[in-house]
């Protein structure tokens, strides 16, 4: 999903973004977690969420993005309420989260949403961190992964 070290702008004509969008449409969802992290590019998962949101807007849909990467215990209930408000208004929501070893609230927050995508960063994301994230949130939540070089 990268070109010259930066994320390509999301648009409905780009086959990479088309595949990501279509993968996300294989299941009915109103709320989606995008889980992952990169020390080399800390904004990467957020940029993926923004790209998906842009693509949705191009297709006439609205997606609200919540940045849960640094949420703590006190944020779990308010986040649940905010997701509910968003989907009650007929909008979709993407909740951006870190891997489980990096933030303990990723598990309860990831379990609040309908489904999830895992961001895997080549040379950074360990199989242990990815596996733990999938297992603790729940394998059935995950639509798949986004591999980023």
Describe the structure.
With 149 residues, this protein is of the alpha/beta class. The protein has one domain (2-148): Rossmann fold (3-Layer(aba) Sandwich). Helix content is 38%, strand content 23%. It is built from five helices and seven strands; from the N terminus they run E-E-H-E-H-E-H-E-H-E-H-E. Strand 6, helix 5 and strand 7 form a beta-alpha-beta unit. It is globular. The chain starts with a strand and ends with a strand. 36% of the residues are buried.
Number of separate domains: 1
Strand content range: 15-25%
CATH superfamily: P-loop containing nucleotide triphosphate hydrolases
N- to C-terminal distance: 7 Å
* Main sheet makeup: 5 strands, parallel
Protein traits:
149 residues; alpha/beta; 23% strand; Rossmann fold; 38% helix; 7 strands; five-stranded parallel beta sheet
Overview in brief:
The protein is of the alpha/beta class and 149 residues long.
Strand and helix layout:
Elements: E1 2-3, E2 6-7, H1 15-24, E3 31-35, H2 44-58, E4 63-67, H3 76-88, E5 92-97, H4 106-112, E6 115-121, H5 127-137, E7 142-148
């Amino acid at each position: 999903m990268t070109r010259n070290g930066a994320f390509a702008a999301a648009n409905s004509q780009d086959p990479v973004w088309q595949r990501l969008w279509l993968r996300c449409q294989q299941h009915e969802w109103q709320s989606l977690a995008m889980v992952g992290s990169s020390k080399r590019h800390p904004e990467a998962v957020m940029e993926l969420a923004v790209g998906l949101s842009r693509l949705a807007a191009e297709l006439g849909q609205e997606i609200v993005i919540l940045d849960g990467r640094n949420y703590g215990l006190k944020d779990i209930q308010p986040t649940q309420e905010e997701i509910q408000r968003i989907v009650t208004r007929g909008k979709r929501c993407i909740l951006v989260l870190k891997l489980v070893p990096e933030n303990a609230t990723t598990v309860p927050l990831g379990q609040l949403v309908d489904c999830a995508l895992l961001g895997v960063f080549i040379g950074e994301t360990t199989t242990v961190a990815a596996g733990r994230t999938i297992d603790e949130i729940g394998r059935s939540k995950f639509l798949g992964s986004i591999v980023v070089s």
